[in-house]
Design goal:
There is one protein chain. This protein is mostly helical and 149 residues long. The protein folds into two domains: 57 residues; 68 residues. It is built from eight helices and two strands. Strands 1-2 form a two-stranded parallel sheet. α1 packs parallel to α2. The N terminus and C terminus are likely disordered.
Length: 149
């Protein structure tokens, strides 16, 4: 990554952190779950200001990141198998689907699961919340088109 891009990322993180302070100063006392992209340092910034917050990385960003490694001819099949991971009903099923994906695709596209493994705890936060809250998170994610384009 070049220096300009690193500085730009740092600037965006600082802007987001300032916004978090604005929320806190305007009577927001806590954030239950924060769904966001994986901007460097943002999880730490959220937890510094709202220490009880659970971080959930955006599945859409993860899918897009995964698809950049896959040529067009395989995208539909790869995305269908990734959907078994993020569409699982519980963490055990998600982990099982991830291992099935690993067996099928890891030799051809090893970078995909490197990213999923690295971010696994933040990608699966929604499995830890109650069924009512889980449905609200899942309903909002189910309305998103996950096409890998």
């Amino acid at each position: 990554m070049n220096e300009k891009k690193i500085r730009a990322i740092g600037m965006v993180a600082r802007i987001r952190e300032k916004n978090l302070y604005l929320y806190r100063n305007s009577a927001v006392t806590d954030i239950f779950i924060a769904c966001h992209d994986n901007l460097t340092g943002f999880c730490d910034a959220i937890n510094a200001i709202f220490p009880k917050t659970k971080n959930q990385l955006c599945i859409v960003h993860q899918i897009r990141n995964s698809c950049k490694f896959v040529p067009y001819k395989d995208r539909k099949a790869v995305c269908a198998d990734l959907k078994k991971i993020y569409g699982a009903v519980n963490l055990d099923d998600a982990e099982y689907a991830k291992e099935e994906f690993r067996e099928k695709w890891d030799k051809k596209y090893p970078d995909i699961l490197k990213s999923w493994d690295k971010n696994w705890s933040e990608l699966t936060t929604f499995f830890d919340i109650s069924n009512t809250s889980y449905r609200a998170v899942r309903d909002s994610e189910d309305n998103i088109d996950y096409k890998c384009s």
